[in-house]
UniProtKB/TrEMBL annotation:
Keywords: Membrane, Transmembrane, Transmembrane helix. Residues 2-237 form the NADP-dependent oxidoreductase domain. It holds the Pfam family Aldo_ket_red. The keyword Transmembrane applies. This is NADP-dependent oxidoreductase domain-containing protein. The chain crosses the membrane at residues 42-60. It comes from Gossypium gossypioides. SUPFAM superfamilies: NAD(P)-linked oxidoreductase. PANTHER family: NADP-DEPENDENT OXIDOREDUCTASE DOMAIN-CONTAINING PROTEIN (PTHR43147:SF2), PROTEIN TAS (PTHR43147).
């Protein structure tokens, strides 16, 4: 997650060596990583102070890694690809996951600032990740955070509700933005699957509502790929979606795989989370 920012290439290669030697073969990356993202174009004293404050806030509260910059964006994927080639590791010995960045007005260095997850952005993101990884396919491709449209007409314009994330508990109508339907996102991802660029798709930072909507659309259209994983923000103090998302996964929603990778979590905590969801469901 911090390769290229706080970890140099030699350090990154050593870390990957140690993980692989310990039996780890699943590696998760993204075209960007970390919140907030300090732009290299930030110069004013106030902006610098603001980004420093936000960095410390997120680091303390959510345990997010060192934020990437324009100069280091994509290095995580690049370093992993270099490791596979330098160590001459057979492609079938590793499972590679990465993510497409969602809407953001701050990360202008990623596709000129991704405005939405339309077909153009998803296609460019997939191709960009493959190029940085120097590979012909990605095993698991995930939507990093929601770009979900709940459309209604207002003065002939399409408006959608943003999705509260990262510990937010209340919906802020001021942050509404135009978006694209889930069906279009699934169609674009399906095209990448058909082209052999990715094998499976997943979600990240999603809500239970979003997970079920993606499953619903895929169930009713054979053209759309089904999600197989959900990766959620997980911190000791921010777990508002954990029981309900766990319940979806345990309930057998298309054999959904559930990842908790944002913190070092013990087996005991995983078991307790599973049991709490089972108890809520009423069955063992």
């Amino acid at each position: 997650m911090t390769f290229g920012e706080q970890n140099s290439l030699p350090q990154s290669l050593r870390l990957l060596d140690q993980a692989f030697d310990a039996g780890i073969n699943f590696f998760d990356s993204a075209e960007m990583y970390g919140v907030p993202h300090a732009s290299s174009q930030t110069h004013s004293g106030f902006s610098a102070f603001f980004w420093l404050f936000m960095f410390i806030f997120y680091l303390v509260k959510y345990r997010y890694p060192v934020p990437q910059r324009a100069e280091t964006q994509g290095k995580s994927e690049e370093y992993f690809g270099q490791w596979v080639r330098k160590r001459k590791i057979s492609r079938d010995r590793v499972v590679i996951a990465t993510k497409v960045a969602g809407p953001s007005g701050q990360m202008s260095w990623i596709r000129d600032g991704p405005k939405c997850l339309d077909a153009k952005n998803i296609t460019e993101a997939v191709d960009g990740s493959l190029k940085r990884l120097q590979m012909d396919h990605i095993d698991l491709y995930q939507i990093h955070w929601p770009d979900r449209s709940r459309h209604f007409k207002v003065l002939h314009s399409c408006v959608s509700s943003y999705v509260p994330m990262f510990g937010e508990t209340e919906y802020d109508p001021v942050r509404q933005f135009s978006s694209v339907p889930i069906e279009e996102q699934l169609d674009s991802l399906g095209s990448a699957v058909d082209a052999g660029k990715i094998r499976y798709i997943g979600l990240s930072n999603e809500t239970p509502y979003g997970v079920m909507k993606f499953l619903h659309f895929a169930e009713n259209n054979v053209r759309y790929p089904k999600i197989i994983s959900v990766q959620v923000v997980c911190a000791f103090m921010v777990k508002s979606n954990m029981p309900s998302v766990s319940l979806i996964c345990i309930g057998g929603a298309d054999k959904l795989i559930f990842f908790r990778i944002h913190i070092a979590c013990s087996a005991e905590l995983l078991i307790l989370e599973w049991l709490s969801a089972v108890i809520m469901r009423g069955t063992l």
